[in-house]
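Example 3.
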Amino acid sequence: MRKYHLVRRADARLKRTLIYYAIGILVSLIIGAIILVALGINPLDYYGRMFTIGLVGNRYGYKSIEGLLKIFVPLLITSLALSLSFKMRFWNIGGEGEFLIGAIAASIVAFNSTGMPNFVTVLLMCLAAMISSGIIGIAVAALKVKFNTNETLMTLMINYIMLYVIRYIGETKADWNFFLRDDSERPKFGTFPDSAVMAGIPIGQFKLLWSVLIALALTAIVFVYLKYTKQGYEISVVGDSSATAKYAGMSVGKIVLRTMFISSAMIGLAAALAVSSAGTISDTITNNVGWTGIIVAWLSKLSVPAVFVTSVLISILQYGCQAAATQYPAIDSNYADLLQGIILFSVLVADFAANFKIVRKEDAKNA
Amino acid sequence: MKKLISMVVAAALAVTSVFALAGCSSANGGNGGGSKASFKVGAIYINSQNDTSGYTYAHHKGVTEGMKKVGLDPAKDLFIVDNVPEDDEKVKQAIDQLAGNGCNIIFGISFGYINAFEEKAKEYPDIIFSHATGYLSNDKNFNNYFGRIYQARYLAGIAAGYKSLALGNNNIGYVSAWGTEYAETCSGINAFAMGCMAVNPDAKVSVYEISTWGDQQLERQAAETLIDTYGCCVIAQHCDSSQPQIVANEKGVFGCGYNSDMTTEAPAAHLTAPIWNWDVYYATAMKAAMEDPANFMTKVGIYYEGLNAGLVDISPLSSNCEPETKEAVELAKNLMKNGEWDVFSGVKLSFSGSAGSVAVEKTNAALVTNDGAEIVAAGGPSVEDGVITGSMNYYVEGVTQVN
């Protein structure tokens, strides 16, 4: 005897969605404030520091911006890449693993690049990462096309396989292992030679890394690709209905393979840019973009401009949470994570509320 | 629906305004942009400062107590970035944050922070960088610090040795994060075993390696295996939680904890635990950095102290200890404090006599590994500190790894 049930709103409007988002964020900030007050901290003061990513009173503010961009670039590219495959209804949740494959491939080039010109090295790193991640993407897509395997499971498992591969590399002291510092008795990842470290354009003390410009250009390219090219159109047709695509004479298998290659290769590129900017590799290099990217893609409804905006906001949230937590000895990063989680959850609930409504059964019948 | 939303919004507004007021009246919190003259301390932790036990807890306690000793207020002058993995990029960002907040000295407590500390010490010459457990330094603003915890483990070994003698069971167990891969764990196991054998020459130490610094489930299983399969009567440990002691308590055997006095967790089992008094170092380092930062490296430099400075010690002996333990521990402790004797040398200590008349005897005996290789000749001097902290990768006679 269900009296109420959910109905999708026929008139989904942007304005209402934004208002709901605002309410969601407000509610989550209030929950966060309750905890802050309980710890004896002024929430307004704390949130002020959080949303200004700790820039106020910071001696090296330009470094905060650099740090923020280092979080932003991989997240943006990964989210774009995931949007591509999601648009085709190919559930690629292997972003973490694809990222790590790219990071390892790029690092192999980087650690062996002593003496090579910087531009050439970074280009080779990007290519190595894109090809190796792309191949894994194609492999999973081929299994799906050929044997109709479940791509969610396949991509998910790549994450764990690659995580353990990189941990193995990081913890194994051996002659072949050029990833590690030579002079350390304990296994410890080394740093790249200068030839493999991302360069940038100095603006005063601030250094605008090339990776940022590459990410911006890539955003524009993906936007055009999806909106104005035949291949982009094919992706959305396959996503809407692969039967329709087949009927229209499209080769669905080919489209799936191609798109997954592009999607994984982009994630590989994000990894190459990330390791090059960091000048090293580690098992936490992904910064969870493979997971966060899924949230970004869905919050953005797979729209490229929205992915851009959401990536900016989530990067600010992540960086700001840590920056604010640093300034209060009582606040640890668990609080920062908690607050991020509450905010994201509230926004998702708000999104749901903006698109669905609860109606009584009788009303539904009359409607 | 509309009504509901407007109610939620109204409630939200009401609640925020209340908090805004409450916030104003509560402590000022936050400390960014304080007066420029004040001295600020930065710390980078592997876990959270709000932990209630374990490695980060011990360091955080040391930092805050050290700050109080030198007249700093941890609520105002301390900046922390916590849960920082051993990832150079994340450590560098943490350092940038702390530098941006005006920290004068930055402590990093985990080994894997080493690359980032080395690099950032060059970038910020005015800030002092101090790195625990590492091996790098420079001559201006970058040192490393650690302690002779093996000395405390030797003392705990004495307590375990007396217990095994009293029980007539020579099997002693040791739950260890790592085995011979890390000199830190390896030297600890060896020192503990030598302490056991100084009292009970027939003692055998069985090591169970769990291959991670902390995993409560694995620590528990390791202790159970050592007791049930290998018949161990005392369980020592080099891992994060008190699970091995809790298991010893449940199974009616005894144990030596680590990092904190685990008698509360295992009242019927715990003997004593090797502990760190990190505040000894932190106070020394902060004082030097406050008074004369330019000469930090000559005044503090590479810091590696032991029982003599009070940096390491054992927790008070519990009532579970055998009566002879107290005197024997004091005798050994004094020899090490005075620098007359050290663990990894060609001289062995042996204890004899009953409570009230315990005597220690020194005999020349080579330091030999469990596969017969001689490390130090009989009567020879102690191995170098670099071996103890960096390259020791063998077990001494009497130690076997069971997994």
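The domain at 41-147+277-305 of chain B is CATH 3.40.50.2300 (Rossmann fold). Chain B has 13 helices and 17 strands.
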